[in-house]
Amino acid sequence: MKLQFKVQQYQTEAVDAVVEVFDGQPFADGVRYRIDPGEQTASPLVSIPGIDAQADAGLRNTEIALTSPQLLANVHAVQRARGLELSKDLKDPVKNSAAPINLDIEMETGTGKTYVYTKTIMELHKRYGWSKYIVVVPSIAIREGVKKSFDITAEHFQQLYGTKPRTFVYNSSRLHELERFSSDSGVQVMIINIQAFNATGKDARRIYEVLDDFQSRKPIDVIAANRPILIIDEPQKIEGDAKKPSKSLEALARFNALFAVRYSATHKIQRTKVHRLDAVDAYNQKLVKKIAVRGITVKHLAGSTAYLYVDGLEIGKGADFPKARVELEVQTAQGIKRQVKRLSQGMNLHAISGGIEAYKGLFVTDVDANRDIIELSNGHIIGAGEVTQDVTDDAKRRIQIREVIRAHLDKERELFADGVKALSLFFIDEVAKYRDYEREDTLGEYARWFEEEYERVLADYLGQLDLDEAAERYRQHVEAIPVRATHEGYFSIDKKTGRSVDPTVKKTGETAGQSDDVNAYDLILKDKERLLSFEEPVRFIWSHSALREGWDNPNVFVMGMLKKSDNTTTRRQEIGRGLRLSVDQHGERMDNPVTVHDINELTVVTDESYTEFVTALQKEIVESLSARPRKASVDYFAGKQFKTADGSTRVLDKAIAKALYNHLIRSNYIDDDGLVTQEYKDARAAGTLAAPTAEALKPVIDFVWPLVDALYLDLPKPIDGRKRKKIPFNEANFEKREFQELWRRINHRAVYQVEFDSVELIANCIRTLDKSLNVTVMQYVVEAGKQVVGLEVEQLEAGTGFKLSETKVEQSAVSAGSNVKYDLLGEIAQNTQLTRRTCAAILTGIRPDTFAKFKQNPEQFITEAAKLINEQKATAIIEHLTYDPLEDRYDSSIFTENQTAQDLSEASGKLKKSVYDYVVTDSQVERDFVERLDVSDEVVVYTKLPRGFFIPTPVGDYNPDWAIAFRDDTTKIKHVYFVAETKGSMSTLQLKGVEEAKIECARKFFASLNGKAGNKAVRYDVVDSYDSLLQLVGVQ
């Protein structure tokens, strides 16, 4: 199995943030120079005509041609486009800077930092010709992961750029790699960990020493001569902080870098930030997994000694549901044992326990699946995850192991039909707990408990499965895997004995609590793809917590922390190992916006209570977030950029900024301190925001709300993993003739096509290019200097043999890089996915003065022109869209298969007319809608459409909300079939651009179905209440 990669907009934006800082830099293939050959090769210091010095020719990065004011202007343009605070200058706040220019990219763990900086390297090479890069990482674990990432993305970048980076890991015993790094053309990347150049060991010092085996040269000098670009991964683990910078930061300056780009989720030293994608952004944009937590809470019951642990609650078909899985003490022939029993209302705990005195007189009086609690006859209430007595560490660990297994089976069953293999990861802090070499089976205590609990939980789980084909396929799959084959340990290996051992762990520094065991990381990375295949039986992985940095497997869905908490690892670091979005059996990411957070949910099983873990995690997230504006003001809004309906970018002027600020005050959307109120948040969520009175504000109000949203933190709160339950399917309602007819009518897959009116598109593009295309005029600096009198050898070596006497800035009407040949048509056609003929018509139609801008700055002309053409293309797409329904249909199993478990606290009571017994709603509008649907005499049957049913659109797949079959006796038409989308407001102003586009596409989709059927078979519309639905249907 091979991981697949694709171009994603959020990653492209992070790449562009760096590339656009250097807009106006001319393309150059690099500067040829003579590599210092060392002492063993005698050659003249001056190149002599006729003597071929090609063998010693190095190729270093070209110097930055832009002036400081130009660079700062570019930085400001990038920052404005991303809503970031504008930098006052480009100075480094730290005295010992790693490079003259230092850019920060903030990216949340799991969003693909390594991919982004690899693509940034390729794009900088393509646009400006820079080819020498050094990736600096804080640890051996990250170094091995980065190298693996470069290897597996090489083919992807070869397809995108026609070339791929040549990478190697710096090793002081393989210095010939540095010769190739210096002399070879193409993209050259050296990966180095800080220990290789900033440690006291003999190997680390070699980089600064004159080496006999390197022709009496210093490796650092050979590297520095290339003017490399530094990519610093996790700089906060390398550089210390602004008050106390580390020695590593000083050492970085020795590389003589052109500039440095730093990538991290948590920057300690704030420099020139050009992009931000933090924990809140990543979660809200659905770029990482959602988090669920299963905790354990000790709840002492006054006056009771009965041991009870509520494992979880279940709903299902039958009068005895809901049920609670409860662990209690049971009298057996072998003595008192703790066993898990299923309890329903009215059960006698004394009888179930086999007569143990502590349970005498205790009955279950209530099992409430919505609140996730059970109530006992003595008035005590116990919630899921609560235990009534103090439990030993061993007992807690056993409960955690059982919880991981149960959470794993729930997720695995859910994803099996999607072709996604679920993995669970246990972190322990002592290998002997898993591997005991004194025993014949080598199983440690935790491994034995795992096998016992796995067989017990699996038998119980399979006994509860439905008797259908899909369930049977899953049953056969898991029953074919022997328990001993389904778990495996990944640890450090003792070279003498070949046995698993505890790794050596760093005690201090930024990598405290981690191991430097290369072999252990190699094993983990080697098996990364293999573990994702169903053919590989291992589903439960055990590893030492010190090796956590090596784990980056996208299909980890459950994590069990079977270790004592320490100060070296935060909860955020622990869950960071499982945040990456999962992949299926073809290596494709499961990132469809319709289903991404249904599929991608990471369950963390901890020995803390749910509340303790979540509170601590959210505190860590808040602390990690960079400073964001919190207060609304005219100054905050003025100058901010926003996107309009046609995709173009506008800047908010001061007058409109003032009107917006006044509107927020009048509507009580901000308080006296300028902070966003709850009233705004509620109205925003419900889609009922007040319309402005100021005429200037009315046309833009819908597009500037995101500027207000940015002022408050909508922190992602992990859900309680025990609250989620699979909702029973009401087969009788599904089989009703009315529902089957409705399903037959809407159950069509479809393809769409867009037939552009080329003439119209060309005319719009010409008009937009003439009006909005701007490029930077190239400038270059001319520096004059004279050789100093009394030149010394040391001055030549230090590069101070000439003294600068004059500098002058010149403007160029022709780009300094204009000797490079450009395929203008080809580049624009590729970037816009239009034909060369259409692109030619656009370019020949623009004014001569617009086309003349190409000579001023070819690279920027191509980029900006393609961007403007794409904006016009996007506007035209919806207008010219047509659907062609296919005979291919969805299988009815989408109503039962792949349906994710839901939190019933967000559901109403049990429903009578729905295809599902419960419906979980995400707004008050939906809640009221469901309640009215279920009691309405006009409604025969309805359903919330399953996530597997969607309509393809150019702006992403769309999953409508409801399908409803009405009885309509008044008009003598037997039935009315309706597909509805519930929104808090039906005003197009209140709907987001993408949502509005999807709804427009859905109208066209259902119109095409009706056209095929020859009648108005199915109605589709947006409603904000049940009453508005009745008016549309005409049933009153």
Give a written overview of the molecule.
This protein is α/β, with parallel strands linked by helices. It is 33% helix and 18% strand. The strands form twelve sheets. Strands 5-6-4-7-8-3-9 form a seven-stranded parallel beta sheet, sandwiched between helices. Strands 20-23-19-24-25-10-28 form a seven-stranded parallel beta sheet, with helices on both faces. Strand 16 (373-376) and strand 17 (381-383) form a beta hairpin. Helix 1 (9-19) crosses helix 3 (113-128) and helix 24 packs across helix 30. The longest helix is centred in the middle third of the chain and has 24 residues, at 393-416. It starts with 8 loop residues before the first helix and ends with a helix. Residues 41-55, 813-818 and 985-991 have low confidence and may be disordered.
Number of strand elements: 38
| Fraction of helical residues | 25-40%
How far apart the termini lie comes to 57 Å
Sequence of strands across the biggest β-sheet: 5-6-4-7-8-3-9
Strand content: 15-25%
User: In angstroms, what is the radius of gyration?
Assistant: 32 Å
List the total number of helices.
Answer: 33
Mean of pLDDT: 83
The secondary structure category is alpha/beta
Low-confidence runs: 41-55, 813-818, 985-991
The shape, in one word, is: globular
Major beta-sheet overview: 7 strands, parallel
